[in-house]
Request: fold
Amino acid sequence: MKAKNVLLLLVVGLVFVWPPAVRGDGQAQDPLKVKIPESGVPQIMTMEGKFVRAAYNNEGYVIIGYQLVNRSVGEDWMLLEVGLTVLDNTPAYELKRDALSLETPDGKTIPLPTISEHREGNTQALQNREKVQRYSINYFPPTANRACALTFFPDLTSRALPVDEIELSKERACLGRLYFKIPGGIAYGQHWLNVKFEKSLVRVPFRILTKDEEKLMDKNYKSISKQVKDAFKPKKKS
Reply:
C-alpha cells in the first residue's frame, strides 16, 4: 500500500442503514444513514460486524470483539478481545503496554491497568462469561498466518506469565484479552480503542448500544470475514 492510498481512502466508513421508520399514514420514511465516526487520524478503512470492529492504516491492523462489553453496562471492568498485526514492509518491533488505551464517551483516556490492579479486580467471572458471550475475531490479512498470543493479561487459570511487550510482525496474528477499569462503570455511547504502533496511531471505534439501538441495527451488519477478505485481496495485474 502506498501513502497516496491513505489520502484517497482516508477514513472510509462502511455505512449501515437504519430500517425505515413508518409514518402515521403507513408510508415508510427515508432510512436514516449513520456514518462510522471519523477517527481523526489517517486510516484506510474501518470495518463493522455484529460486535466486531476492525481498523487499519499502512502500518498496523487492529480487530476487536466486544459483545461482552455491551452486556456489561454499569460494571467496573471492561474486557475486550483484541487482534493485532503489522502490514506490508513494516519491520518487526515490540509493542509495549503503554501503547494501548481506551477513550470513553465522556472524553477520558484510560490506560491499561497494572498486573496487580488487574489481579485485584477479580475478573475471573468476567473471563468465564466472555467464553460464551463472544463473536470470533480471528480475521487477519493473509500475510499474518502464524498464531501469536497477546499475553498482557494471560488466562487467569494458566501458568503463563504476563508480559510488558509483544513482538509484532506481518507474519504474526496476535490474539488476546485486554482489560480496562472504568471509573463510574461502563456507559452507553461511543468508545475508541487506541493502539500506538511504532510510527502511527490506529483508533478503533465501537459503540455500546442500548437495546433499542441494537434492535434497529441488528440486520444491517455485513460479514466481517468478507470485509477483511475484500480489503486485503491481491491486486489484479494490469
